[in-house]
Amino acid sequence: MGTEFGSVSFLGKRLLFSGDALQERIEEVFAQVSPDDLSTLRAKVSDPQDADHAAAQRVGAAIQVAMEKRLASAKVVLEEMINNADGDVNVLIRKTLRKVESPLPLLMVLQLNIAEAQQQGDGDKLRVMMHISTVMQEELEKKASRVKAMLNKLLRIEDENIRNNILRDQLTPVEVAGAPDLDGSGGQLMAAQVPWERLAPAIESLVKDVDRQMVAVLGPDDNARYETMDRIREVAKQARLIIGDVYGQGPMDQFSADLTPAFHTLMTYKARGRRSPEGEEGAEEAAEEGAGQEAPES
Description:
Layout: H1 19-29, H2 35-45, H3 53-83, H4 89-99, H5 104-120, H6 123-141, H7 146-156, H8 160-171, E1 174-175, E2 190-191, H9 196-218, H10 223-247, H11 249-258, H12 264-271, H13 280-289
Antiparallel strand pairs: 1-2
């Protein structure tokens, strides 16, 4: 079988493996498995008519075993962080991120613990979990581009006013040092820390990446998938207004148009009325919000 599974094509003929041989190979290449691979495998597993259905089932099962093994390890690491919360947990987080294959299992366990603490009303545990999450995200942001780092930071902040201040600070052009003015033109060189033209592509990429991960881990119908996309959309709506205020109507409209495809899945979901007890009232509310269905307008 020479079929390629998304970017899992590196498995090649090893897709013919089964049992221990397949599991060993998955363990070897687990760090290379991406959300795209998981989404592709899920689609093939769910389609009995797919020519690679049986192979996808074997590979998917092996990946699931490998993931569960790493989730167990991630739980142990997180417990160590909690037990050291009074010490220098920041140093421990940095060391951990340098050692792990991928931060995804650890982030998944962390989010589950945050949700559990919220449900139980355990304020002390929630504060520790949120601190660990914040430090971990900040460490990951150091490896990201400026625009990605800004988006990651914004998604962690609940206060809308603080998000607005960050967006305005990052998107507003300021005078920067340039070459000596030799021709006497006297022009000032202005630049924003995050050019508005780069923001829409970054948001679109973020939506795609996060959605792939959510679908791969939780499935396509989990509410958390749409809640996450809606949170990103709220940030996009704030950014749109600031772009309009700083740059004018044209750039604001262009920003909205560029993001039209990114939130299509979310707005389609909202237009279905969210399938909640709100009934027609919920559907009407979704339709009103859907005025921004083709763009992240407020």
